[in-house]
Design brief:
single chain, Yope Regulator, Chain: A, alpha+beta, 2 domains, four-stranded antiparallel β-sheet, five-stranded antiparallel β-sheet
Length: 287
C-alpha cells in the first residue's frame, strides 16, 4: 500500500469558511484509499495504486472510463510496460503553494510534504479521494448557480475553430454534476473495425499525453473531450474552469483533425484499413 509522507504535524485550518483536516489525516485517507501522490513542475498527480480491473472499479473497460465519471480521474498509460493506470492531475497555478520532500526538488516523482501545502490543496486532495471510487460519486455536492458558472466558462471560450471545422463546447450542469464538454467527431455505424481501432488508439494516446482531459465515445457514437469538475471545491472552481478550458482547447485542436480524418471512410488509406501502430498514427491520420 502506498504511503504519503507528512513533513511535520499540522492542525485543522480554515478553507473557504470550512475547517480543513490536518495533513496527517489527509495522508492517512490517501493511504486507506490506495492512492499515492507526487508532483512534477507544478502538476500534482494522484495515482490509484489499486490493481482492481478497471471494469470492476468504474463500470468501463480497460481502455476507457465513462465520460460522466465524477472528478478528474482518467486512464493513462503508465511508465514502461506497466499498463493503464487511473490518475487525477491538477496544476498548482492559482490553487496554492506545493511543497516537496527536499528543498528545491521539483523533479518528476518528487514526494510531497503535505504540511507545506496551501490549505486549498487539502480540499482538492479530499475531492480526489472522494471521487476515487466512481461508485461513491460526489456525495451531496451541488454545482454553482448558472450565472456563476458562466463567469468561469464564457461562451466565447467554448467556441473553437480548427481550420474549416467549428466545435462548440458546452457546460454540463445537472443535479450533482458539473463538466465541460467538447464534441470531437461522430463515428459512423458502418466504420470498419480497423478504423475504429485506429480511432481508439488516437484517443488512448491523447489521454496519456494531455493532462486533465478525458477522451472517449458516448453511447450515441459521438467522440467527446470532457473535463469533469463534479465535486470540486467551490472556492477553487474559477481557477479550475480556466485550467480545464485551456486543456480542452489544446486537446480538441490536436485531436479533431486526426479523429475526423479516421472517421471519414471517404478518406482512402490502406494503412487505416490495417491494424494500427502508434508509430504510424500521426502520419497515417493527418490530412
Amino acid at each position: 500500500m502506498p504511503q504519503t509522507r507528512v513533513g511535520r504535524a499540522g492542525t485543522p485550518r480554515d478553507v473557504g469558511g470550512r475547517i480543513a483536516p490536518d495533513p496527517e489525516t489527509i495522508a492517512s485517507e490517501l493511504t486507506e484509499a490506495g492512492l499515492s501522490i507526487t508532483q512534477d513542475r507544478g502538476w500534482v498527480t494522484v495515482v490509484d495504486e489499486r490493481r482492481s480491473p478497471p471494469d470492476e472499479l468504474s463500470g468501463g473497460t480497460p481502455e476507457e472510463l465513462p465520460l460522466n465519471t465524477p472528478g478528474l480521474w482518467r486512464l493513462a498509460d503508465g511508465p514502461g510496460a506497466s499498463g493503464a493506470r487511473r490518475i487525477f492531475e491538477v496544476h498548482a497555478s492559482g490553487v496554492g503553494r506545493v511543497g516537496t520532500g527536499r528543498a528545491g526538488d521539483s523533479g518528476s516523482g518528487a514526494w510531497m510534504d503535505l504540511a507545506c501545502l496551501d490549505p486549498t490543496w487539502i480540499e482538492v486532495l479530499r475531492w480526489a479521494i472522494a471521487t476515487s471510487d466512481p461508485r461513491g460519486g460526489a456525495g451531496d455536492w451541488k454545482p454553482p448557480i448558472p450565472s456563476e458558472i458562466e463567469r468561469f466558462a464564457p461562451r466565447d471560450r467554448l467556441t473553437l475553430r480548427i481550420g474549416s471545422e467549428l466545435r462548440q463546447g458546452r457546460v454540463v450542469r445537472d443535479e450533482g454534476r458539473l463538466a465541460l464538454d467538447f464534441p470531437v467527431c461522430s463515428v459512423p455505424g458502418g466504420l470498419s473495425v480497423a478504423r475504429r481501432e485506429w480511432l481508439a488508439t488516437a484517443l488512448r494516446d491523447g489521454r496519456s499525453t494531455w493532462r486533465m482531459v478525458r477522451l472517449g465515445t458516448d453511447d450515441r457514437g459521438q467522440t467527446r473531450a470532457v473535463v469533469d469538475l463534479t465535486g470540486a471545491p467551490h472556492h477553487a472552481l474559477a481557477h479550475l474552469c480556466t485550467l480545464a478550458l485551456d486543456a480542452l482547447r489544446w486537446v480538441v485542436e490536436w485531436i479533431v483533425p486526426i479523429a475526423a480524418f479516421i472517421a471519414d471512410a471517404s478518406n482512402e488509406s490502406r494503412i487505416l484499413e490495417a491494424a494500427p501502430t502508434r508509430a504510424a498514427l500521426a502520419c497515417a491520420s493527418l490530412p
